[in-house]
Every structure is written in structure tokens, then in C-alpha cells.
Design goal:
It contains four helices and six strands. The protein is α+β, with helices and mostly antiparallel strands and 144 residues long. It has one domain: Ribosomal Protein S5, domain 2. The strands form two sheets. Strands 1-4-2-3 form a four-stranded mixed sheet, with helices on one face. β5 and β6 form a beta hairpin. The longest helix is centred in the last third of the chain and has 21 residues. The two termini are 30 Å apart.
Length: 144
């Protein structure tokens, strides 16, 4: 897994909609056994769920979200995100005839737990970056 956030100021519409970013600032690519999965799959869903859980936990821990505030949603958190999720599967299961979308609850759970664990420890190692990223996300959510 690799990820970065890009908070671009270009190409915003007249309403200054902060979650509408250029396409180059909104990417999530998935791979299973080194094969691209353009339609996503359980590994991509697990990444998103783990990321949302980790960011919301950090935001609440730091007081950026109060107990009364709703959780930040995946669209808000993923705005400006560029990420690559790659999994190696011993016994791959796929959805559909084209076999380009990995399936399986085990894959989802494994990726979600791993992302939650590692993204959950990232703020302690990089407090200034974490505060900037999560602060920007939570401020944008309050404007909506």
C-alpha cells in the first residue's frame, strides 16, 4: 500500500466545492497478484473502510471531531487521495466473467485491519503531516 494526499487549489468550481478536485488528485488503484483491478474489489473496499476508521479515530482523539459530530465519510476523506492497493492472493476468488474484481471476506478483513493498524500509527510518527491532513479534511466537512 502506498498513499498520499494532494490538496490542489486549481480547477475548483465557482461554489468553491473543496471535494471536487482535479482527476490527478483523486486516484485509487487496485492490483491483485500484480494484475490491475479497475473495477475495485474487496481489497479496495477493505482499504477504504480501514482508512475511514483510522482517520475518524485520529480526528476524535485529537479533538478535531467532537462526540456529537458525525464521522467523516469516505468521499470527504478520499478527496485528494492518491493510493495504490496491491494484494498477493494464494487462492484468488473473483467476481464476474472478466475475473477482474477480487472477492472474499477474508481479503476485505485482512486489508481493512492492516490499513487501520498502519494508518493508525502514522500520526504518531508524523504529527505535523497528520494534523494538516486530518485538519483539512475535518474543516472541509464542517463547511458542508
Amino acid at each position: 500500500m502506498a498513499l498520499t494526499w494532494c490538496f490542489c487549489r486549481r480547477n475548483r468550481d465557482r461554489k468553491r466545492d473543496h471535494h471536487r478536485l482535479p482527476a490527478r488528485c483523486r486516484h485509487l488503484r487496485g492490483f491483485a497478484n500484480s494484475r490491475a483491478t479497475p473495477d475495485g474489489g474487496t481489497h479496495v473496499a477493505g482499504f477504504r473502510d480501514g482508512m475511514v476508521a483510522a482517520i475518524n479515530a485520529y480526528a476524535r482523539e485529537q479533538g478535531l471531531l467532537s462526540s456529537a459530530d458525525p464521522d467523516l465519510d469516505v468521499d470527504r476523506i478520499a478527496a485528494g487521495l492518491t493510493a495504490v492497493v496491491s494484494v498477493k492472493l494464494d487462492r484468488p476468488e473473483f467476481h464476474g466473467a472478466t475475473r477482474d474484481m477480487p472477492a472474499g471476506a477474508v481479503v476485505h478483513t485482512c486489508v481493512e485491519d492492516t490499513v487501520r493498524e498502519h494508518l493508525g500509527t502514522w500520526p504518531a510518527d508524523h504529527p505535523q503531516w497528520a494534523a494538516a491532513v486530518v485538519g483539512r479534511i475535518s474543516r472541509g466537512a464542517r463547511r458542508d
